[in-house]
Amino acid sequence: MNILERFHAMEYGPAPESREEADLWLGSRDFSKSLYIAGEWRAASDGKTFETRDPATGKVLTKVSEASKADVDAAVAAAQKALPKWSASSGFDRAKVLYAIGRGMQRHQRLLAVLESVDNGKPIRESRDVDVPLAIRHFLYHAGWAQTLDKEFPDQKAVGVVGQIIPWNFPLLMLAWKIAPALAAGCTVVLKPAEFTPLTAILFAEICERAGVPKGVINIVPGGPETGEAIVNQPGIDKIAFTGSSEVGKIIRRETAGSGKKLSLELGGKSAFIVFEDADLDSAVEGLVDGIWFNQGQVCCAGSRLLVQESVADALIAKVKQRMSRLRVGAPLDKNTDIGPLVDKTQLERVKGLVSEGAAQGADCWQPDFTLPSSGYFVLPTLATGVSPSNILAQEEVFGPVLATMTFRNQDEAIEIANNTRYGLAASIWSENINVALHVAPQLKAGVVWINGTNMFDAACGFGGYRESGFGREGGREGMLEYLAPKAAPGAEIKPASKAGFQRQGDYDILSIDRTAKLFIGGKQVRPDGNYSFPVLDKKGKLAGESGQGNRKDIRDAVAAARACKAWGEATAYNRAQVLYYFAENLSGRAAEFAARLAQLTGAAPQAARAEVDLSIERLFYHAGMSDKFEGRVHQPPSRAVTLALNEPVGVLGVVPGDDAPLLGLISMVAPALAMGNTVVAVPSARSPLVATGLYEVIEYSDIPAGAINIVTGYPSELTAVLAKHDDVDGLWVVAEADTCTYAEVESVGNLKRVWTSNGRAIDWTSDAHNDTFLRRAVEIKNVWVPYGD
Ligand code: NAD
Predict the structure, then answer these.
(1) Alpha helix (H) ranges present in 545-605?
(2) What is the mean pLDDT of the chain?
(3) For a Cys staple, 303 with which of 273, 403, 562, 581, CB 3.0–4.6 Å?
(4) Domains annotated on the chain, with CATH
(5) CB-based pocket (< 6 A), ligand 1
């Protein structure tokens, strides 16, 4: 074809990027030693290797050492050895190392990009223009956090040795998201790249060697699920940071329960791409190219569900089909390629299988009419229309270039369909009306929302999910917190409470309070479902009263009431502040009565009891004041956009404050939860429940909407288990003995609720240090990207 013919056909000629440098690196390197442990290149202790292939041809690129459990142990030992010196090094010293890594990557930018495309199959345009520059940006950005750590996080220290497990879809970028904040915080790391894509991690380790990273600070252990499991279960690891499927995320949640390991999970998604009738349809179509065909759709936040307003559906679908017909599927190293091969044969079969199943379930699956390369793991992009909400293509994460389309009539319906998924990673909103877009964004259950755009990322803007898309954030200030732990020593061990105290043991004749306290659900005092009560003894062992013994049904009712209480979440922060001040005022009016009750039930000296009440009032005041001050931020990423990092309530929170300081503990957990707009189901101290039940009247006349606070007395470990298993509870905070804490974590996997436990330790409720920590736990950060300019 000559130039004139080409011009008329509007057809691109081939424009291959050279892979010479990558081949040279592959050919010259000794891959029989590809574990990087304690600053040395080692073979696997059992000699095992695995193949990594070029997805464009299916040919083996090389064989890489596969880390065994013994190798993981060695890597953890190296990381432990390096930790004291690295975490004690000055912020400036760590900043210099991070900067040197970033500069080293810049020097190898082209090699990294080509190697990534060869190993993963992603088009070179993406690895060259997105993956590698963003990965470099992460190291340069986090150099700044390293230097400012002591000033910005004065009560925090490095969490310790971190085990990091990443997927194959953005091998280098996910590595950067994990390693950069960890090093900035002063942690040392053991990272496992995915089995399909180990190469850029190996090259990265070489760059680190040259950048002067001290031995043992970064350890790279390639391998598959077994290596991952060895990391998860290694007792010397203090935190696990995992990115991958929700299925494996749940396994890891269960396996780390009770270990005290800090955990962040970045999991799958089924993100909505919502097009309103006033959207610029051509821009939306280009957005879709980035949303679902970027990286062959193997993107956790891919806009895989297109929700389009009925009135423009036909017009948009026609444009999408036309655009799909022009997508270029082919060699990843060709600079004109839009869609490369999938990463592996197994992934290809999975995607094809899901498309067939979606079609069998009634979806109309359309594919453009072009021929695929004869070798490699290529698949045609698919547009599925007529997709019912229950169709597998609407519910399952396909992780391929498959777009499921649904229509909606109005805003409410769009929001409802968008939220009709167990995931909550990201969403895009397309509308020329910024009022509409900013009205819809907060109503979407997603950690990231892009307005008139998609797949925008930056190191300064946190990324992470709601619901089963996991918890924790990567990037930004919030990402740093994932690698930090409080400097304060943990409290004393909590001894398991004996259930005997709950059983009637003969007759008690001295009753100082002649009534049985009920439960408080939906703004009403109600009898427990089972009609049982338990005796409450004072410090001298005399009967002080009876308290209702809540059960599973009572917790269910309380959760339903908390969920139904829309008024609290919708109230302005200023309204919430006023109500909490009012609560404090009313409690102060009855301070003497509460102090007497505390003294009677806990045996505290009158002065100490009064001090607990006064501090509870002070804490309510603090959180009332924070209601409209613990706010989000605005980021200015290096693109024409602002990112609004909004603090949103987690939702329905279960709180179990334990027996110490029964009034102060309860208030210290309930107040920040309420201040941030959550609704609460509290299980108060079992030893002194009458302190909590005494609050019912205070709550009733403090203008707190019915259902915002629900209190279920009973046996905390049983009720905690019910809360943990309940899939309509979004978060759970537990101060209890170790077994109850472990159980709360294990049983939370159903909906991956956000669980915080004291890990069997007591909390010093008199300290103000916990105030902001609980406020942070009470919110999910949603990053809303708002681009500007023409
Ligand atoms: P995967 O869960 O199968 O594997 C991820 C990693 O975990 C791999 O390194 C794998 O070897 C390891 N692994 C597998 N089983 C393990 C176990 N039992 N214990 C410990 N480690 C184990 O996921 P994948 O197929 O490699 O990646 C695709 C998934 O990753 C998708 O669901 C995608 O949405 C998700 N993802 C999420 C994000 C995010 O930021 N939320 C980013 C990229 C990818």
Answers:
(1) 552-564, 566-570, 573-589, 591-602
(2) 96
(3) 273
(4) 19-266 (3.40.605.10), 272-464 (3.40.309.10), 508-787 (3.40.605.10)
(5) 165-169, 192, 194-195, 224-225, 228-229, 232, 243-245, 248, 251-252, 266-269, 300, 397, 399, 425, 465, 469-470
